[in-house]
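Input set for joint prediction.
Command: fold jointly, output tokens.
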Amino acid sequence: MINVEILIVGGGPAGLCAANAAADLGASVLICERDEIPGGQLVKQTHKFFGSRKQYAGDRGIAIGDFLLDEVINDPKIEVMPDTTVIGIYEDGLVLAERSEEIIKINPRKIIIATGAAEKFLTFPGNDLPGIYGAGAVQTLMNVAGVIPGERVLMVGAGNIGLIVSYQLAQAGVETAAVIEGAPTIGGYLVHASKIQRLGIPVRTGYTIKEAYGDGKVEGAVICRLDAAWNMIEGSEEDIKCDTICLAVGLTPLTELCWQAGCEMAFIRELSGHVPLIDKYLQTTNPKIYVAGDVSGVEEASSAMVEGRLAGYSAACSLGYGLDTAPSLQAGAMAELDELRAGPMSDRIRQGVEKVEKMVTKGGV
Amino acid sequence: MLINTGIPTKEDLAKVDPSAERLAQGPVAIVECFQEIPCNPCVDACKRNAINIEGDINGLPIVDFEKCNGCGVCIAHCPGLAIFVIDKTYSESHAVVRLPYEFVPLPEKGQLACALNRAGEELGNFEVVRVISGGAKNKTTTIWLAVPQDLAMEVRSIKAPNSAPNIQNSAPGLQSSPTDTLICRCEDITLDEIRRVIADGYRTIDEIKRVTRAGMGPCQGRTCRQLIAQELSRHFGIPMEEVLMSTFRPPVKPVKLGSFVKGGDL
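tokens >
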């Protein structure tokens, strides 16, 4: 049995920042990371990040991952356990993890769940043909494993992931036939869309995939126009030849551990799925458990890092560390979050966060 | 429209372009950034404080064209690759467009490169007059392309060296055959099967899981759970908020019984 003050589940941008923040205040921390190398999605983000200098804007995601990991590894108060999946949180607060087919028992005083999010899938005929991937999976395949998925891609979804992965496919010499988006407007940052349009990759809003076809693998897709009510318009079908289809239709929070731990949960559309109800210090309704990053609502990595810091300060403070410095550090992180969320691109996030706040004040769902 | 296509219109560009007089005076930066997003590295990049944003970090960048001397440091610092420097004083016939570039192999000075406009249309082959490395950390190269004066405000990219041949899409006349729509990839459960059991009276995710095994595979419902919830929401005409979620129990992923038998450090 491992006794630890703060257990962090997930070594992505939120988890690593949480570890650094909690250790800075003096708490001892254990990070359980499913992958061999911590960093979460940062390990495949070859593009430069947005935000301000405080969130490492202008640096590429991979560099930010290395930097955060360096800080964690060089901190004697933090232990990193890679290749380790937390498989359960039990009623008595005991945590089970699995590493190399071994079960590890962990007894933490506080837990920060920073498990991130998973890619959503889409239903259409032929959606199980080989050659259909999540866009994030293709990014891992290319940027981590060095393997290209195919020669010609149809990208479904013009959010930031769809736009960025299309650009990275082009960098790898893979053609993108089109980026299609069901909504009437582009969901991701327009600079990303402009960047790929300049390369001759068309972004077509108001289109969805009707079906994928092929003999044993993807050979093409039928796309069609959508009306304002998202119904397919008969007769608007077009055939797109491709050997790969990437689905970039959003992410949904990975909340299994929150549910198991008995945190009160609610479906908040603006936050992309079921999320734990939290207070402004990122504490869930289970006082032992804090959350940070996409698990409490899908957002940008810059916000995940700030939330990580906030959750780290909060958890450490709840154990009596940094009682004098924590309040101002927490306030600083909250102000950073407010600033990142102040723009029109964050309208949905703000609405989602407000919904959660209201439910918490009312005392639950 | 920019918001539908990602291609800025003449009206959009009119808001960020310097005057003809300023362009005639020498190199100047143009920031083709039209959307309020939380981002400000351009402000930090400019040593002459020629780029500012209004209000908080979400404000649009505004270039003070009088302070800007067209040094071009900002080009490689914009995460959105939205900054260009235009020098209309390069020669009588040609202007230089300096643009960010992140492809390999890099073109060399003296080579011709195929210029592209904001829609990716080819505008002709023009000479690369300078290639500036962004350095080991930044990694964004700045390419100087000498283009005819009348294309200076059109050229915004060059064609990547390894871009694939353009395969033409065929006209409709589809060779598709009826195929299944899969809901649970691990256990191979189709949308038809889910609809059939809903019609049979099963009405929660857990009931559907028990009768079909959807959600019992390696991913433990990570993919199909939401899709089944959406189908229940659609079928019963209730919002997603009211669809009863499944029960969550450890382990979150399949673990070999042997691992538990070994017991670890119990």
